[in-house]
Design goal:
The protein is mostly helical. The protein has four helices and no strands. Helix 1 crosses helix 2. The chain is elongated and about 35 Å long.
């Protein structure tokens, strides 16, 4: 399920600059940002708050996915 949220000018500009720094398209850069968040955030807290357990095997916060 793809979801395309609208970004504020501020956040769109920040993403554009990150994409330039990574030398990647904004869409790929955003994916990399989410992967990084999945590795650095408190995954246990996120998982405890989750309301959709059908997505665990693909989730960036799923422990086994991040360890592999």
């Amino acid at each position: 399920m793809a979801y395309t949220p609208e970004l504020s000018q501020r956040h769109s500009g920040a993403l554009r600059r990150i994409a330039w720094a990574l030398d990647r398209p904004m869409t790929k850069s955003l994916e990399e940002i989410f992967d990084w968040i999945g590795q650095t955030a408190d995954s246990q807290k996120v998982c405890r708050s989750c309301r959709d357990r059908t997505f665990c095997s693909q989730c960036v916060f799923h422990r086994e996915r991040n360890e592999g």
